[in-house]
Amino acid sequence: MSIKPILIHPDPRLKTAADPVADISDELQKLAEDMLDTMYHAPGIGLAAPQIGILQRLIVLDCAKDEGTPPKPYAMFNPEVVWESDDKNIHEEGCLSIPETYAEVTRPAEVVVRWTDPSGEPQEDRFAGLWATCVQHEIDHLNGKLFIDYLSPLKRQLITRKMKKLKRDRARDSW
Q1: Is domain 12-173 annotated with CATH 3.90.45.10?
Q2: Which residues are annotated as catalytic?
């Protein structure tokens, strides 16, 4: 188990589009496992490789949060939304790269996602509710987009200022 440090906004890597994964190596399979460990440790329900400084199209998620519900982890290489519903859903989103900050974001209520699993097999599944929100949020990370990009410029600016202060405070505390 290897917990990776999570980048905090603003960091240019969070605004950079990730490269497609050409070949799922043992190293990338291990990275997916480490990302799941990092996500659970944070704790969070999703994590994208760019959030740990790796610009590859890999996300992990597990929205099975209810007490007594077994974990349902996904590791998705090169995920893409291939269908989205006309119905929209408003969900309060947060992000491990923008700690302790939440805002309502409107997204399609349901999506169909196609990806390659860690064993190299193509997969496709339909996601709704929190799962749909989470998978879209994580795929956005692969495209260099953050949930705050859906907010007004003023709100985005305030959050960015708050994150800069948090990074300064953490840097000062680590001395």
Answers
A1: yes
A2: 138
Backbone torsion region of residue 53, taken as left when φ is above 0, otherwise alpha when ψ lies between -120 and 50, otherwise beta: left
**10-residue mean pLDDT series, the chain (175 residues):** 92 97 95 96 96 98 87 96 97 96 97 97 97 98 98 96 92 78
For residue 102, list its beta bridge partners: none
Antiparallel, parallel or unpaired: β 74-84 and 122-128 = unpaired
- Give the Å distances, CA to CA, from 146 to 1, 11, 15, 47: 27, 11, 8, 12
Please tell me the pTM assigned to this model.
0.95
**Among all chains, which residue has been given the structure tokens 């790796």?**
54
Distances in Å between the Cα of 55 and the Cα atoms of 20, 59, 144 are 9, 11, 10
